[in-house]
Design brief:
By secondary structure, the protein is mainly α. Among the domains are: about 500-570, Alpha Horseshoe (Serine Threonine Protein Phosphatase 5, Tetratricopeptide repeat), CATH 1.25.40.10; about 675-760, Tetratricopeptide repeat domain (Serine Threonine Protein Phosphatase 5, Tetratricopeptide repeat). About 80% of the residues lie in helices and about 0% in strands. It is elongated. Residues about 1-25 have low confidence and may be disordered.
Length: about 750
């Protein structure tokens, strides 16, 4: 059929008018359409779509109060409380007589524990709407929370009078009666709430709680079960029943209640995670792992399920699978704090802590309130030598979560190494506060008390730790150390042996036992005990180290050397054994062998500064001062604030014509770190002498001699300083003292020549 040109024009005109119809609607019409559309989405739980529509309405009219209110409802359904508060505030500012918005805002303030503000809002509503039941109930609850319980009870009675046929006012009144210890009246009131509406879940839970507090277990169970039966999809009802069973001591019923809840709420992330948490809390790691794995398989796209699974994969050392799943999260969101924390934790476990540092710093930056991130960053810092950074992070972790035992344990261990009794006591106090039946808290407090000299208090705590955990090697060893310090040798021996029965490889107990024998000048007993121990643990390097020490105490150098060589052969990281072996070789004239031992140890332990220091000292004695200087520089490169290496390098540079200004700066670093050391005072005095600052040099040199008057080098330096100051008599006295202290020293001829020249100058 042929269409005429005019007909076509008419058709296009009509079509364009239809398409543009919306263009001619007023802004009010358009914002209302967006509002209505958003409400439909909200009714069908399509929250994101609803939010877009309400925001479209607000874009047309930023003062459109109904859209702000509906937006608040969307955010409330999603649990975004700050956004709810913002939108409700907008609503009541724009429309103060939106009483429902006023009430919602007041309830939000109450939940945030802003009780006075909640009360003010309730009073404002009641001034205009005297029969507003929700405001009356809120007023009663606010008064009670503000400490005016009598007023709260009166306001609750008014609520009952306003709506005698509704359960809500009776619930509030009953709870306040319970708070006022009017138990019988509270029971009657709560029963009235249940009778009015048997399906009113809060009344069942309130009555169940009342019975539970009275230990009326069967009656309480009936009410909690009624709450669950009233609404099988209510998470709070299910978890209240679980908590009740745990309080009653019915672990099996709690487990079954969790299984039932999981069936009733199969798609609720807050629910299907709980059974795995239950198994973890009850020390059933295999059941927990199986449950969490099952949840992840059922909900692979649920982020929290995946994260929980990753956490347990790491705990079960299934690192490859954990890495794979974690990288999937980071691919979606590279700043996900929890995924970054998992990555850092895995790197720590893989002994890649240097790489872990930057990852965990990013995790902490992304979520400063995450205690696990701070804890793992502390572990990375500690492993890479940043002890102060580690302490800072662990302190932050326990500040955020005082119950984080791993962080408390790390702080306690650090406190022991530093000798920081205050930090140790803080950790012990927190441990005992949250876990009064845990032996670790008593152990830490016992050690702190022992260090403070509180012998009786320490013994009580350490015995309590052992009572709670008879196999506690730390408790037994701590108590043994306490008895050893009091010279109660038999008791000390008994507890050292008890620790070794629990753990034959616990070096601290074995060392304590050996020291006990050596202190009593019984090296042969120590040797016999160590040989018996080695028979049990023939691959234990520390046992051979202790055997070497005991053989040396028994003047058996050859066997001691063999034992120490065995120790380093078994464990190339046993630096204490390397140090003692090299020292033995050095003192027995095997200097080249000693140097070789140090070099071998350094190769395997490149960050152990004691090895560099010891080898540098040996090279100094062999007059290989250039080699010694290089070794001291390596120590400073590893640990820039290490004072003795700075002091020794400074002295070597001053003695052998190095950079005097660099030597002076090193001496100042050493002096600042060790202000009471005569060695650092003398080195700084010698540096000042070299640059011509004789006044400062004099004071420092005199201080060194005051603290170590038998050191001929100190007197020699002071003599040279006096000589420069033309204090001839004092110089002569200092040089004469050098000859008296060490008449055969390498510098004695030089000192005698100086004395002759001083005599000629009279």
């Amino acid at each position: 059929m042929k269409v005429s040109f005019k007909s076509a024009q008419w058709f296009l005109l009509v079509l364009s008018l239809l398409l543009c119809a919306g263009c001619f609607r007023s802004p009010n019409e358009r914002k209302q359409r967006y509002l209505d559309s958003g409400k439909r989405y909200l009714k069908n739980a399509k929250y994101q779509e609803a939010i877009i529509q309400f925001q479209n309405a607000i874009q047309i009219d930023k003062n459109f109060a109904p859209a702000h209110y509906q937006l608040a409802q969307c955010f409330l359904r999603q649990g975004l409380l700050p956004s709810v508060f913002r939108e409700l505030s907008y609503t009541v500012n724009l429309d103060p007589k939106n009483w429902q918005a006023q009430l919602d805002l007041a309830n939000l303030l109450f939940e945030a524990r802003h009780f006075q503000e909640a009360k003010d809002h309730a009073l404002f509503i009641l001034k205009e709407q005297s029969n507003e039941l929700g405001a009356q109930i809120l007023l009663a609850s606010s008064d009670a929370e503000l400490g005016n319980l009598e007023a709260g009870l009166q306001e609750a009675q008014k609520a009952v009078q306003l709506a005698p046929d509704k359960p809500g006012p009776y619930l509030t009144y009953g709870l306040l009666q319970e708070k006022a210890q009017q138990i019988a009246a509270a029971e009657q009131t709560l029963q009235k709430a249940v009778a009015i509406d048997p399906k009113y879940l809060p009344a069942h839970m309130g009555l169940g709680s009342l019975y539970q507090k009275q230990q009326k277990w069967t009656a309480a169970e009936s009410e909690y079960r009624a709450a669950v039966e009233t609404d099988h999809t209510n998470l709070i009802a299910h978890m209240s029943l679980v908590s009740f069973y745990l309080a009653w001591g019915k672990k099996d019923l709690a487990e079954q209640a969790l299984k039932d809840a999981k069936k009733d709420l199969p798609n609720d992330p807050a629910m299907y995670q709980r059974l795995g948490d239950f198994y973890l809390a009850n020390s059933e790691p295999e059941k927990a792992f199986s449950e969490v794995a099952s949840v992840y398989q059922q909900h692979p796209n649920e982020l929290m399920a995946k994260k929980r699974y990753i956490e347990l994969l790491i705990q079960h050392n299934q690192i490859d699978q954990a890495v794979k799943l974690n990288e999937e999260i980071l691919k979606q969101n590279s700043k996900d704090a929890e995924a970054l924390t998992f990555k850092g934790q895995i790197l720590n476990l893989q002994q890649k802590s240097a790489d872990a540092v930057s990852v965990l710093e990013a995790a902490v930056k992304s979520n400063p309130a995450g205690p696990v991130g701070h804890y793992q960053l502390g572990v990375a810092y500690a492993t890479t030598g940043n002890v102060s950074g580690a302490e800072k992070e662990w302190r932050e972790a326990v500040k955020l979560n005082p119950q984080m035992l791993d962080a408390q344990a790390r702080l306690a261990s650090l406190a022991l190494r530093k000798g920081d009794i205050i930090l140790l006591e803080e950790s012990a106090s927190q441990w005992l506060k949250f876990y009064p039946s845990a032996p670790q808290g008593y152990l830490m407090r016992g050690i702190a008390r022992m260090k403070r000299g509180d012998v009786s208090g320490a013994e009580v705590d350490l015995r309590k730790a052992i009572e709670l955990d008879p196999k506690s090697v730390l408790g037994c060893t701590g108590l043994a150390d306490l008895f050893a310090a009091q010279k109660h040798f038999q008791e000390a021996q008994k507890f050292y042996e008890q620790a070794l029965d629990s753990d034959p490889r616990f070096t601290a107990a074995l060392q304590g036992l050996v020291n006990l024998y050596l202190f009593q000048k019984q090296p042969q007993k120590a040797i016999e005990r160590l040989r018996a121990q080695i028979a049990k643990t023939p691959d234990d390097s520390d046992s051979y180290l202790l055997l070497g020490k005991s053989l040396l105490a028994n003047h058996n150098s050859a066997e001691a050397q063999a034992a120490l060589e065995k120790a380093v052969g078994l464990d190339k990281f046993n630096t204490n054994a390397f140090l003692l072996l090299a020292q033995l070789q050095d003192t027995s004239g095997q200097t080249d062998q000693a140097a070789s031992t140090y070099q071998r140890a350094i190769q395997d332990n490149p960050r152990e500064i004691r090895l560099y220091d010891a080898l540098a000292g040996l090279e100094d004695r062999r007059h290989n001062w250039q080699s010694a200087q290089e070794l001291y520089k390596k120590v400073i490169a590893i640990q820039p604030d290490e004072p003795m290496a700075s002091n020794n390098l400074s002295y070597s540079l001053l003695e052998h014509g190095g950079d005097i200004n660099y030597a002076l700066s090193l001496a100042q670093v050493a002096r600042q770190a060790m202000p009471n050391s005569p060695a650092t005072a003398d080195t700084l005095a010698w540096a000042n002498y070299k640059i011509g600052n004789y006044s400062s040099a004099t004071n420092l040199s005199q201080e060194a001699i005051t603290k170590d008057p038998q050191n001929p080098t100190y007197h020699y330096h002071l003599g040279l300083i006096y000589q420069k100051l033309d204090k001839v008599a004092l110089a002569r006295s200092s040089f004469q003292r050098v000859i008296q202290l060490d008449p055969k020293s390498t510098r004695s001829d030089e000192v005698r020549r100086i004395l002759v020249s001083l005599d000629k100058s009279k």
